[in-house]
Amino acid sequence: MPQPILSEFYGDNTRWFIATVVDASPPYGFEGRVKIRVHGLHTESTRLIPQADLPWAQCVVPTTEGGASGIGRMPQLQPSALVFGMFMDGVNSQTPIVLGSLPHVEFPTTVQLGQVDEDIVVDNKPEGLWEKIAETVKPKEVDIQNEETGNISTRVKTQRENTAVRFFLNVGYTEKQAIGLTAGLSQASGMRTGVNPQSKGLARFSDRRFDDLQKFSNNSNTFMTQLAFIAYELNGTQSSANIRLLQSDRLDNKGICHIVGKYYLGNTSIVRQIELQARRLTDRIV
Fold it and tell me: Can you give the residue range of the structural domain that contains 58?
């Protein structure tokens, strides 16, 4: 457990850090602190470094606050906040202090999606979140023929690819990851959502996964719903593929395209074609 900051502390042997807040509800005696996982110091694995072993960091408050016990407000940082700070004890790195927070993009909240109030009556299962995000990023200015399940024109296929890249960017993937995922879907199905001899849906879903898609939504045949289902899968039943995907930052050389083909689509024979399609998308979009 970190020791209190000594009143006589003085020196210039400080260490800066970026960290993620994992707990903003400190126990008695630690009021005003947040528990943090420091990037580059604490591994993301809770098995190697359990959350209970992470330090509670004091927080700097504005000088407009009283600064005395019982006067002023407490820090308002929330779990998942990205913060900047330093260790007051230098190389020992056991006494962190948070100086401020950094803006960063995560999955859109219901507020960001334009919903004024949480609806506690209507179904608020995770499936609903992905469909809301899909509806938010659905283009208004171009026709993706959202409900068309069969053959589509080259123009519509291009618009669906552009929309898919935009969707995956909006749910937190990097540009290369979004392009790799879209290239995989394009190669697997030609961006068609229906059932044909070559594929079942956007991702050539297996029978079991296609059943899951139909349970996911009553509009399971539409393009935007299937994009939402893919994001839902990657954060659930296909999380092993998602973990590999999030750890990769290159398209080829057994990178993103290989991961999408082998671990998500389950078809290594199309990896090379996915890489070529990713290059074409990169040239067109980036």
Answer: 15-102
